[in-house]
Amino acid sequence: MDQVLARVKRKRNKKYFKLISDEALFDVVAIDANSCVAYEPDHNLDEDSWFKIESFSEQHFCIDLLKKQFDSKDFDDLTKDQFTEIAFIVSVQGNDFYFQKITPRLFIKRKTLVFGETAHLEESENRLIVNPVPDAIYLKDLDTLIFRNLATISSIFKGIDELYKEATNEEVGGFLDESFVELADGYGVENVSKPNRKRIALAMATLEAMSDGDKKSMLGYVNDYCREKLKFDKQSKKFEISTDDELKFLLYGIEQRFYTTPFGKEKRLANSVQPLD
User: Fold this and answer.
1) Which residue stretches of 6-162 are H helix?
2) C-alpha–C-alpha distance, residues 84 and 98, integer Å
3) Distance (Å, rounded) from C-alpha 218 to C-alpha 118?
4) Of 91, 92, 90, 88, nearest to 102 (Cα)?
5) For residues 180 and 219, is the Cβ–Cβ distance under 8 A?
6) Tens digit of pLDDT at every position of the chain (277 positions)
């Protein structure tokens, strides 16, 4: 049975309440989970793509609602005075859970003209806008959460924003101290932007998995593609980094984002990557 629940903001014994029974808020989103992208913070989704987190019920940021057997009889009806306390809504459709974050701009209270066979005026009432597409969907049979924007759902799944990891000042400093980095023109930890802090967190994991031979080859690879972007001293084996943009290209090189097309031999930068195996 389809059911729409509301999660209220204030702390209380019961957090979820029934809004509507026997109705679904969203059109069914037909998605092949195999075609979804395992979440990577530096990946830019295609228009029709979704991120996914598999084995979601095993994650510490999975909410209790998804870990238990769902039974609509366990929930009381939402009262009128709780309407403005809604933090997010959940549309239980079949075995799947569709989520929408609720913000103040989604509440409407105004007179409206309604057009049917004839036009008529409706007095102001509390209304809540339902978006055309949910912010996240939990596919229960697959134990997989799919979503498009991590920041949007971070208030629903507390702690999930840890997946959007930024390197700490200590970690940034450690990266800038790498043997292949030479800082110049006063560039330092305090100059590293948030996007590059995110890329450093990814690059550190990549470097850790590299052999010494791969690291040496990586330097040549970056230099081959970034001669016009980065200064490389072949004797000291160091890239000179004096701007945030230069650091970005070095980080893209560590992640092997540069490639040459097989036809035309055009050198390119991949804005996003997705493993095919």
Assistant:
1) 64-67, 150-153
2) 20
3) 70
4) 88
5) yes
6) 799 999 998 766 789 999 999 989 999 988 888 889 888 877 878 888 899 999 999 999 999 999 989 988 899 999 888 888 999 999 999 999 999 999 988 888 777 788 888 888 877 677 888 999 999 999 999 999 999 999 899 999 999 988 878 889 999 999 999 999 999 999 999 999 988 998 998 899 899 999 999 999 999 999 999 999 999 999 999 999 999 999 999 999 999 999 999 999 999 988 777 776 6
